[in-house]
Amino acid sequence: MDAVYSIIPAGVLSQVFVGLSRTTILFIVASGLTLILGVLRIPNVAHGSLYMIGAFTAFTVTKLFGGGSAGFWLALIIAPLVVALIGLIAERGMFQFLYEREHLMLLLLTFAFSLIFGDLVKLVWGGEYKSVPVPHIFQGFVPLFGDLPFPLYNLFLLIAGPVVAILLWLLTNKTKMGKIARAAAVDREMVGAVGINVSRVFAIVFVIGCFLAGLGGVLVAPTVSVTLGMDHNLIIEAFLIVIMGGLGNIWGALLGALIFGLTQSLGILIWPQFGIIFPYLAVVVVLLFRPTGLLKSTW
Question: Which domain holds residue 179?
Fold first, then answer.
């Protein structure tokens, strides 16, 4: 323990773990975005709004069932399903008719949906700040490296990130639907030619992506103020992570989120006034040397 502190100061270690906690949220949201972008070719600007709806729904569920652990676990199930249902309605009602259109039209459509969702959130929940309490089971701290206090909820986030990554890998690589989705990302015409209902596959992928956006909103809710506009910075960061990691690549999203989260956290420690620019500088450096992203793109 003393050897660790002699090499890395406690303050730096604390910021690293905070950055890793932030990485979990970024990865979960970015993985849903890169899934939709990689398979459906939809640059879903409304993804951030779905994340915001997930956070507000978590507030409502925890308020209905109390601020205890039960309310949080129910929110962790209900809120992503609500967001997934909203995504299914949008996909079946609008997106499925426009897959062959230009990317610019799809981009404008998702931007319109982001405005609609923002107004709906304001209509349902109002413009006031909301807060979701940390569940009782995750209140308090756990000592790391002997005596470095670390919030239990952040530790939960550190565990949740790899679990979601492994489940996504199993889904995309070990299931029939995942293999079909990967094939459709490469050549959707050929997949349709062998008798597979590509439209249904697209709907499933879109719903999974929306579910992940909602899940990210629930997980972030106890750590921030839930408010209108919380989607704006997040969607920019998620797109940068997807581009940096490689379009459509789940592991690229994880690697990009890791770089973004750590540079953001350490940048605040190194230069607090301008700490926010460090992750964007990291994106610039990566794209200078790897214009197509860190890992192989599906495009």
Answer: 27-229
